From TrEMBL:
Belongs to the MnmG family. TrmFO subfamily. This is Methylenetetrahydrofolate--tRNA-(uracil-5-)-methyltransferase TrmFO. It comes from Thalassovita gelatinovora. It is found in: Cytoplasm. One of its GO terms (cellular component) is cytosol. It catalyses: uridine(54) in tRNA + (6R)-5,10-methylene-5,6,7,8-tetrahydrofolate + NADPH + H(+) = 5-methyluridine(54) in tRNA + (6S)-5,6,7,8-tetrahydrofolate + NADP(+); uridine(54) in tRNA + (6R)-5,10-methylene-5,6,7,8-tetrahydrofolate + NADH + H(+) = 5-methyluridine(54) in tRNA + (6S)-5,6,7,8-tetrahydrofolate + NAD(+). Its EC number is 2.1.1.74. One of its GO terms (biological process) is tRNA methylation.
Length: 437
């Protein structure tokens, strides 16, 4: 995501760009193709609400900046209530073809194993940085590689879901169209079914870690069994919460817990189990997931998995132009910088691409203003975060500077969030306008 967006932004500023892609020559655990912009976890870019949600605001800023990732996401959009979800195969096809058709972009297959000494480079290797390049980065920075474990949710064939049990509904009927209001499949559980599911989840065989590895999970992508270990009710108040949903088959019965599945492709033939990232072994996954009402005979297009993600201690290593302090000809972008999520990664690519191109063209360009969503993120990872406890971060309003005169607490949240987004849009628009002048 980050590399694709960076290339697009720099190329549109008139700079010749070479994308180095190691896949499929060098494979990763999570990727299945050699396409650019391949989605390996969810097919969702999360909330598209640009007035009350920080992620939606980031969508707005990227669209305003002629972002490739948002343009392709809008082109491949699927019904998902208030979220922006896409057909992942069409999305990666469009990203790849659009970049390869750009006159200022070329793609060279093969792995970059060392940090280049000259030229302008953006390292946007995502969370799955190759071992050789990771070792080179470690040698240059003198810091140990920081790692967390990111888990992939399973995907189910729609035809194998029992629709006499499951029903279509977005939580609280969100969405402006009937299609959006029915963007999710819901599988209800009674209390006894939920308790049996938790027991099986806790008892299932899990993937073992290699010697010396520890599981430093990012809280936004916790495996379901790790959540269950934190308390038997954790899942029921997380991805399996039953609120905002009414069983169309039995409207008088209130489910104790609900498993949601979100459409994963345009045809509607694939659904991913929302929030069900897992490190269970494959055999255990099929046994446990078929305990879910409606999924008793489920066929899986992809089972869940787990992989190690690598990220920099960016507050100590990067300047506010996203350059490596010890080698300023190299910038980093995307998840490797310590942001979490497709949107955040692509946003950091957008910034890195523009900053690098401006430097090549001899133009001074300040980084995005701090009161914008992009600016709040870049400020956090390059100095605002505490280096000793630095962990991957999604964009959120907690990263924004307060707006004077607004009420705190939950009651004032709606006005406060609107003030954040209004201010951000104004500041970001001025930043873009300054680059056009």
């Amino acid at each position: 995501m980050a590399g694709s967006e960076a290339a697009w932004q720099a190329a549109n500023m008139g700079v010749q760009v070479v994308i180095h892609e190691m896949r499929p020559e060098i494979e990763t655990f999570a990727h299945q193709t050699g396409k650019l912009g391949e989605m390996v976890c969810s097919n969702s870019f999360r909330s598209d609400d640009d007035e009350q949600n920080a992620v939606g605001l980031l969508h707005w800023e990227m669209r305003a900046a002629n972002g490739l990732i948002m343009a392709m996401a809008d082109r491949c959009r699927l019904p998902a209530g208030g979220a922006l979800a896409v057909d992942r195969e069409s999305f990666s096809d469009f990203v790849t073809n659009t970049l390869m058709d750009h006159p200022n972009v070329s793609v060279e297959p093969g792995e970059i194993r060392d940090l280049p000494e000259d030229g302008h480079w953006i390292i946007a290797t995502g969370p799955l940085t190759s071992s050789a390049l990771g070792t080179a980065i470690q040698a240059e920075t003198g810091a140990e590689r920081l790692a967390f474990f990111d888990a992939i949710a399973p995907i189910v064939y729609a035809e194998s879901i029992d629709m006499d049990v499951a029903w279509l509904q977005s939580r609280y009927d969100k969405g402006e169209t009937e299609e959006e209001q029915k963007a999710y499949l819901n599988c209800p559980m009674t209390k006894d079914q939920y308790e049996a599911f938790i027991d099986a989840l806790l008892a299932a065989e899990k993937t073992e870690f290699h010697d010396g590895e520890t599981a430093g999970y990012f809280d936004g992508c916790l495996p379901i069994e790790v959540m269950a270990e934190r308390g038997r009710e954790t899942l029921r108040h997380g991805p399996m919460k039953p609120v905002g949903l009414t069983n169309s088959h039995k409207p008088e019965e209130k489910a104790y817990a609900v498993v949601q599945l979100r459409r994963d492709n345009t045809l509607g033939t694939l659904y991913n189990i929302v929030g069900f990232q897992t490190k269970m072994k494959y055999g255990a996954q099929t046994d446990v997931f078929r305990m879910i009402p409606g999924l008793e005979h489920a066929s899986f297009a992809r089972l869940g998995g787990i992989h190690r993600n690598t990220f920099l201690n960016s507050p100590t290593l990067l300047d506010d132009q996203m350059r490596l302090k010890s080698k300023p000809n190299i910038r980093f972008a995307g998840q490797v910088t310590g942001v979490e999520g497709y949107v955040e990664s692509a946003a950091m690519g957008l910034l890195a691409g523009r900053l690098a191109a401006a430097e090549i063209l001899g133009i001074h360009l300040d980084t995005a203003p701090q009161d914008s969503a992009m600016g709040a993120l870049i400020h956090h990872i390059t100095g605002g975060a505490e280096a000793k406890t630095f962990q991957p971060m999604n964009v959120n309003f907690g990263l924004f500077r307060p707006v004077d005169g607004l009420k705190g607490g939950r009651r004032g949240r709606k006005d406060r969030y609107k003030a954040y987004t209004d201010r951000a849009k104004s500041e970001f628009s001025q930043w873009l306008k300054g680059q056009d002048e």
